[in-house]
């Protein structure tokens, strides 16, 4: 597999072409951002930690029958993934009230949500990823009703797998976002799953173990990511 030119550089990851049009290299950088890129910082080891964390999670999801774009790790910071046509809609599940839900509705942080909520957001940094619904997604051509239904079903299947995985490590899965794309006409989980895109708390202390540590200036960001990984079985050596 030959790595070629850079196709895209996001806030924390870069995508490179390969000699296979159906495969690209996903590079995890040490860059960390918050508030739609208004705050940026480089954190040592972050690229390696998120790459290995993501590979572990994607393996667990594949084993549970959830199709992902992940193929294999190529290095500490790079993975080979399928080339997807991304759907610009983020799927968010909330098991516990936190973050944007608390701000929008004035509910108490930490409230258990039963059943979990499911929300859609348009992936658009310039507009600060506005909340949307199925009707808007269909009207503007961001996703079809069939795609949305499959994305929702897969998102809740992910929830069932990962809630238990993290609970076994003493870590309630508060909420998370997923992105999907099309690979040869099939809906496939894309992007990444790491503490950058979910909220995880320590079950006993309620300490935040995710990117909220960066957003809120709590420090110990990568140390928290590594602790989460160790609790669920990620090998960072």
Automatic annotation (TrEMBL):
Gene3D superfamilies listed in its UniProt record: ATP-grasp fold, B domain, Phosphorylase Kinase, domain 1
EC code(s) of this entry: 6.3.2.6
Keyword Nucleotide-binding: yes
Catalytic activity field: 5-amino-1-(5-phospho-D-ribosyl)imidazole-4-carboxylate + L-aspartate + ATP = (2S)-2-[5-amino-1-(5-phospho-beta-D-ribosyl)imidazole-4-carboxamido]succinate + ADP + phosphate + 2 H(+)
UniProt domain SAICAR synthetase/ADE2 N-terminal: residue ranges: 7-231
Pfam family, any one: SAICAR_synt
Protein name listed in UniProt: Phosphoribosylaminoimidazole-succinocarboxamide synthase
Lineage: Bacteria, Pseudomonadati, Pseudomonadota, Gammaproteobacteria, Oceanospirillales
Gene: purC
């Amino acid at each position: 597999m030959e790595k070629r030119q850079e196709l895209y550089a996001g806030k924390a990851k870069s995508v490179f072409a390969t000699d296979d049009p159906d495969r690209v290299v996903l590079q995890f950088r040490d860059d960390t951002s918050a508030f739609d890129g208004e705050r940026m910082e480089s954190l040592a080891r972050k690229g390696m930690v998120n790459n290995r964390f993501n590979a572990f999670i994607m393996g667990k999801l594949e084993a549970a029958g959830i199709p992902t774009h992940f193929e294999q790790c190529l290095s500490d910071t790079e993975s080979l993934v399928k080339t997807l046509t991304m759907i610009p809609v983020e799927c968010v599940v909330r098991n516990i009230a936190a973050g944007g839900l608390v701000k929008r509705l004035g509910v108490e942080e930490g409230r258990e949500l039963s059943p979990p909520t499911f929300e859609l957001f348009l992936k658009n940094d310039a507009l600060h990823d506005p909340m949307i619904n199925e009707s808007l997604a269909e009207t503007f051509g961001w996703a079809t009703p069939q795609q949305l239904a499959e994305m929702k079903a897969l998102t809740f299947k992910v929830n069932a797998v990962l809630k238990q995985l993290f609970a076994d490590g003493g870590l309630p899965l508060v909420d998370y976002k997923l992105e999907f794309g099309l690979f040869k006409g099939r809906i496939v989980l894309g992007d990444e799953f790491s503490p950058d895109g979910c909220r995880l708390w320590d079950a006993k202390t309620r300490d935040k173990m995710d990117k909220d540590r960066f957003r809120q200036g709590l420090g110990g960001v990568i140390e928290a990511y590594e602790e989460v990984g160790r609790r669920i079985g990620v090998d960072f050596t």
